[in-house]
Amino acid sequence: MDYLTLAITLAKIIFLTFCVVLLLVPVSVYFERRFCAVIQDRVGPNRTGVPLTLFGFKKDCSVLGIGGITQPIADGIKLFLKEDFTPNYVRKAFYWLAPAITLAPSLITACVIPFGSEVSAFGRTERLVIADLDVGPLFVFAIASLSVYGITLAGWSSNSKYSFMGGVRSTAQMISYEISLGLALIPVLLYFGDLNLSRIVEEQSRHGWLLMPLWGHDAAHPLLPKLLFWFPAAVAFLIFTVSIFAETNRMPFDFPECETELVGGYHTEYSSMKFAMFFMGEYAAMVIGSAMIVTVFLGGWSLPFGMDEWVRNLNIGGVGIGGLVHLVVFVAKLVAFILFFILVRWTVPRFRYDQLMKLGWVVFFEAALINVFLAALVVAAPQLGTTIVGIGAVLLIAVTASLIWAARVSDPKTPPLRA
Amino acid sequence: MAVVKLNRPNLGPGEKIYLLALAKGFFITMTHAVKSLLGKSMGAKELKSSGMGVTMQYPEQTWDDQLPAYYRGAPALVTDEQGRERCVSCQLCEFICPPKAIRIVPGEIPADDPWAKVEKRPAEFDIDMIRCIYCGMCEEVCPEQAIFLRKDYVITGLSRAEMVHDKKKLYEIGGVRTGLVNKWNEVK
Asked: What domains lie within chain B, and their CATH numbers?
């Protein structure tokens, strides 16, 4: 590996991790506060600006003419300047380690997300992805599930009942939803026959997004199978999205920090920058989660209807900037999906804990399993004879029916009434 | 009717699947979002909204003209039509004040004063506005109708000393109040 490659990789790490992912964290915090305010008929933070009067200027100024855009920066400064209090009774080593373990995985997973297509300059072509691994989604799952250790350690080392309960809940929840997360993605991988996220996006750019297969039909990619695959893809999308919600501890599933039951949950005992790291970790996980969904189901950085070819050839002074345009497209999709995350948070009330477990193990696990077989049937149908496909379909329906029957029978008839 | 037995509602298949209910929920929240962006939230007009949601932008807009007559703001001393200090420093308010915010030093009215027969007026009258809880007991207990809770609510200061209202400040806030019972006047 020569020095130039090393320098380019380093530049990509710094730019994509710190200028894109970490920049999206304050952006999503701002949107969270403004959007929830608007939903609740309020105004939200609309006054924070740049305090130029502190530096001797006549007037404070607001960024872009909208007050409040710098609110997350003010929040950050506040958290940074607060007293970093470590209670006497905590397990110090793990207590200090936990916030880092929560934040780091979300930033590491950023390295396989394709943020854009190629940027070419001086005879070199660089993809806008830090590590173009051939095991993209597996890498994301492997690393993202490490963040549960941070939360569990935080809960345990805090040596307080509420924190501990939060930690235990988060462990159970994350492990439960990891299964359906992985299983939901299998149909997609079957369809593309590839685990490299860049190539998956490339394929979607040429032949239609997974959830919008409306262009790029040719002999190898006819329209009918694509439309047939739309149904398993939609089911996979639904299961994957809900599991991401559970995985990132977002609202309908935010049991680890459920205020009404557990005070602050696993970060009850944390203050100042350590709390801020949990906060950042949560939002970074949300950003990476939406990045995964956008990449796999909504065509990543690609523009619909074959506009990519045109974008790809854009260049200014010999520098191919198509990749940067695609980066902007990707970030726009990402922000749109984050807005959806926020809308869900302020719409759906929190589940009860047993409902969450039931949803994970009884509904999503089975649904994802059946979906895998359904997708396999749809993908393999052109190669198989009509008889075999028919037998497969009948078998699948029988298995589905028996699973639903089993779930219904095992369900207690009269749920116990709680006082 | 000692025990009320509650049954769980029987949900239809649509409600059990939950997706329709979710869509309905998104519709409701988005309606609220759009309406509050346009300044057309329910009650925006009655609550004098600033154009976003139902919120009033506080320092620029205030609710002062809507305050009810019984609003309990800062306590203040009043003078009457004849310019007499109503307070006779009986110290009842000082004794009843739950957070002990009031401190009175009684003073004698000199014999050559036209109101000499009232005998006493406060030499010092301090209300510590950090302690005051705006309960209005001082107003209620006052036998002389001398202390009233006014509609002022913006009590600010940069130090603890600034937050103590002395006699001068209290009369400044209170001003002249007419139509009170004037039991100390000469019978005509």
From this structure: 13-59 (no CATH), 67-174 (3.30.70.3270)
B107 sits in which H/E element: strand B102-108
Q: What percent of chain A has a predicted confidence (pLDDT) above 90?
A: 2
Give the pTM: 0.81
Domain annotation covers residue A129:
yes
As a whole number of angstroms, the distance between CA A145 and CA A141 comes to 6
Name the H helices within A263-313: 272-297, 308-312
Specify whether the CB–CB gap between A109 and A288 falls below 8 A.
Answer: yes
Nearest residue to B170 (alpha-carbon basis) of B110, B116, B89: B89
Full residue range of the structural domain in which residue A273 is found = 75-352
Mean confidence (pLDDT) of chain A: 83
Please tell me the distance in Å from B151's CA to the nearest CA on chain A. 26
Q: How far is CA A136 from CA A5, A127, A292, in A?
A: 21, 15, 10
Q: Which residues of B touch A46 (CB under 8 A)?
A: 52
Question: Is the complex ipTM higher than 0.95?
Answer: no
Q: Determine contact: A339 vs chain B, CB below 8 A.
A: no
Number of residues in chain A? 419
Nearest CA distance, B26 vs chain A (angstrom): 6
